[in-house]
């Protein structure tokens, strides 16, 4: 069950408050209790499941995100090649404007694109200001001991967090000033580094997405929200090899005599030099497949395409062939 399916099952909108959700849940439990509702005894179980899932989802939304293609690790070295400056200062001048997307270009050699690799990346992002917890505010207390001076009390009821106005001071006289650390912007610019796994068979134009590793968007009921980071792949072309789907292709020049007689050649592949046998009577554009030398995770091949070279002066050859025909008639 996904959070969306759970909301549908309980027939409530996703922005429903914790209180209303609980109310609806109790209603449904009453209506579909197996003692009363004999038509579908599983209904009660499903309602329970859906309620538990939404409660968990609201506390741990990241658990329900699709799988992250990149793996993060702390790396001490900063690869300057991948350093980008997006000029946040200009792009996000107003707190209400959505923060810019972060896109990072990662350049790969041909071998890295076929075999996969890990790349260290570094970028600037707007992280949540820790001092004000992303609110941009510095609160000056009112001296009330019922709410530590902040006018609101937070209660945790069975995993659902509620905030309510303090009953003792009614939330009066709580001044809200700008946070000095972030100047009320809610975010602080930081340099972030990480390592990304580039999958085998990556091609120019491919995009990897790092979920929630980008700019701080704001706080919501579901927790802190961050943009994704997009990693754009660019592959430096190889002089003799090219990648198509999961196979690597290269050409092999042979003479007409070699094509007629057969021969063997050494071929450069991504996985080292391999020897191929060209059988007698081979033709131009014939393909010879070398297994396990393409994109390995997809059982790709290295495919050698024969390029038969004809001699400069064909007259001698034509003469020989004509003689041969006369002799055999
Ligand atoms: Zn702040
Ligand atoms: Zn109070």
What does this structure look like?
This protein is an alpha+beta fold. Helix content is 21%, strand content 33%. It contains seven helices and 17 strands. The protein has a four-stranded mixed sheet with strand order 12-13-17-16. Strands 1-11-8 form a three-stranded mixed sheet. A two-stranded antiparallel ribbon has the order 2-7. Strand 12 and strand 13 form a beta hairpin. Helix 1 packs across helix 3 and helix 2 runs antiparallel to helix 3. The relative contact order is 0.12. The structure holds zinc ion (2 copies). The site of one zinc ion has 7 residues, from loops.
Counted by DSSP, the helix tally is 7
Number of strands: 17
Bound molecules: zinc ion
Structural class per helix/strand content? alpha+beta
Low-confidence stretches: 67-95
Distance between the termini: 80 Å
Largest sheet: 4 strands, mixed
Keywords, separated by commas or semicolons:
329 residues; alpha+beta; 4-stranded mixed sheet; binds zinc ion
Brief summary:
The protein is α+β, with helices and mostly antiparallel strands and 329 residues long. The chain has 7 helices and 17 strands. The strands form 7 sheets. The chain has a 4-stranded mixed sheet with strand order 12-13-17-16. The protein has a 3-stranded mixed sheet with strand order 1-11-8. A two-stranded antiparallel sheet has the order 2-7.
